[in-house]
Amino acid sequence: MNQEKDQDLVHHLAKQGVDDKMVMGHPASLFVLFFTEMWERFSYYGMRALLTVFLITEIVKGGWGWTNADAMELYAWYTGLVYLTPLIGGMIADKLTGYRKAILWGALIMTLGHASMALEGTSQSFFYVGLVLMILGNGMFKPNISSMVGQLYPNNSKKKDAGYTIFYMGINSGAFLGMLLCGYIGEKVGWHYGFGLAGVFMFFGMIQFYFGQKIFGVIGEEPNPEKDKIIAAFNHVKQEEEEDNENNKEFDTDLVKAEIDSKLTSATEEEKNNVLIYLKKAFADKIVRDRLVVAGSLMIASIFFFFAFEQAGGSMTIFAKNYTQRVLEGNSGEIFKWVDAALTIFPILIVTWVLFKLSQQIFSKYPLTVIFTAISFAIIWALGIWKVNREFSVENTEVTVSWFQILNSFFIITLASSFSKLWEKVWNPSGPVKFAFGLILVAVGFLALAYGSMSIPSGAQTASVSMIWLILAYFFHTTGELCVSPVGLSYVSKLSPKKLAGLLFGLWFTASAIANFIAGMTGSYIDQIAEKYSMSTFFLIIAALPIFVALLLLIFNNKLKKMMHGIH
């Protein structure tokens, strides 16, 4: 769809002073944000892919030789705080800096964080300073770039969901390439090179955003207190009216009025009207309370999902390093080389095509944005080709530990549209049912790992379990994520009163922070449980909790559906 066919979008962009150039029917500015976020996710996931494996790798191999428990505790604190600081970063942007400056400051702080981590060989202090800077920078960056995406579209635009989907593809493309390349270089060449490479692309993301700022018009500018007060007051009144009308759709005014007339025969008309107004407000308040209860229930359920899902960077990384057969010989090695080559080159080819389409529209006005993004892609192509050639030059293939983490992003990219079509055209159950299936699917992934690890003796330090079990686990975890993560964000938006939407989204990220912290702390017990019982027992424990919560959601589904009051 071109811009002539979407006059609402064109009008909205004009009001915001946003450049009206279009790429694939969407504002060109969306794709500037696409690449900025892509490089930020490249840096974040590239570093995260290395974090645990670096900490537990033997000192003679360049790691720190930490115990699994100690590494998991650090991972818990890091990932928990990464999801908690966006609450503060969002408030700073809203009150002080605006979205753009917050994004730039966040990107700069994270770039410095990566640079500091790259110096870990000089002093361990640089590593810890780098982690702190990454946490702070992410807090400034993460919530604000997503907010800018939403403001590119009018609220009623049919393209808004599609715009977020495109943005989501940028997130996963960056995560995929970051884990693939930073993980490979960190493990095969040197840890500091992997940490440093993540920072290089965070720098490019910052630079291309800086030179393309004018494409966003007034979106993301510093807040204007007086103007914002007027707009906020107007929106508040409008939102109150809209919510009153929406919440009272189920309220049969005529029936209630007739009931009042029959029971309050001696009352005046004014008194009867006051009773009617009171009942309307009470009914609307009940709807809000019920919906908030459902939103809270889904948030609690998400904690149990992400507690299991976020084992990817923790216990599953330990399992990949110490207990998985990663050395492939003969035909299996050759097949893997070709699969890995395709997985390396194809995503780069796709995002390069997106860059080409963007450059056609904005190069004349924003040449530096295109040039710096093109330089970053030239480096990516060079690294990708070098990686493929390097792997084909060796006889035996050793799969890197971090390679398995790319599977999540790969499956998301390949399956996301199918799930969207499933909900739209085939089967669209309630939110609690979708959550229940997501919880069951993540549990199935751990059941696969439990089955695959049955041959590992209690207390074994190493083993050679087939990598197929990890691949299956990541597949089921991704299908579960597609039932929970986008669905959860949608339901938080739909169930929240507009005046509380920001708070509810903040609580959603807080739930993710709690889940990540618990995930890391749980992973720290992998050795203790495996030694006392078995590795299978550890994975069965993790599988049991999501299944239990899924059953509760299915049992109370009808009740929760009723409490949503028409929201589907």
Structure write-up:
The chain is an all-alpha fold and 568 residues long. The protein folds into 2 domains: 1-223, MFS general substrate transporter like domains (Growth Hormone, Chain: A, Up-down Bundle), CATH 1.20.1250; 288-326 and 399-568, MFS general substrate transporter like domains (Growth Hormone, Chain: A, Up-down Bundle). The chain is 78% helix and 1% strand. It has helices at residues 7-16, 28-56, 68-84, 86-118, 124-151, 159-188, 191-211, 225-247, 253-263, 269-309, 315-323, 330-362, 367-393, 406-426, 431-452, 468-495, 501-523, 526-532, 535-555, 557-563; strands spanning 22-23, 26-27, 327-328, 397-398. A two-stranded antiparallel sheet has the order 1-2. A two-stranded antiparallel ribbon has the order 3-4.
Structural descriptors:
568 residues, mainly alpha, Growth Hormone, Chain: A, 2 domains, two-stranded antiparallel ribbon, two-stranded antiparallel sheet, globular
Ends distance: 28 Å
What proportion of the residues is helical, as a percent range?
Answer: over 70%
Structural class: mainly alpha
Structural Rg: 26 Å
Topology of helices and strands:
Layout: H1 7-16, E1 22-23, E2 26-27, H2 28-56, H3 68-84, H4 86-118, H5 124-151, H6 159-188, H7 191-211, H8 225-247, H9 253-263, H10 269-309, H11 315-323, E3 327-328, H12 330-362, H13 367-393, E4 397-398, H14 406-426, H15 431-452, H16 468-495, H17 501-523, H18 526-532, H19 535-555, H20 557-563
Antiparallel strand pairs: 1-2, 3-4
Helix pairs in contact: 2-3, 2-5, 2-6, 2-7, 2-12, 3-5, 3-17, 4-5, 4-7, 6-7, 6-12, 6-14, 7-13, 9-10, 10-15, 10-16, 10-17, 10-19, 12-13, 14-16, 15-16, 15-19, 18-19
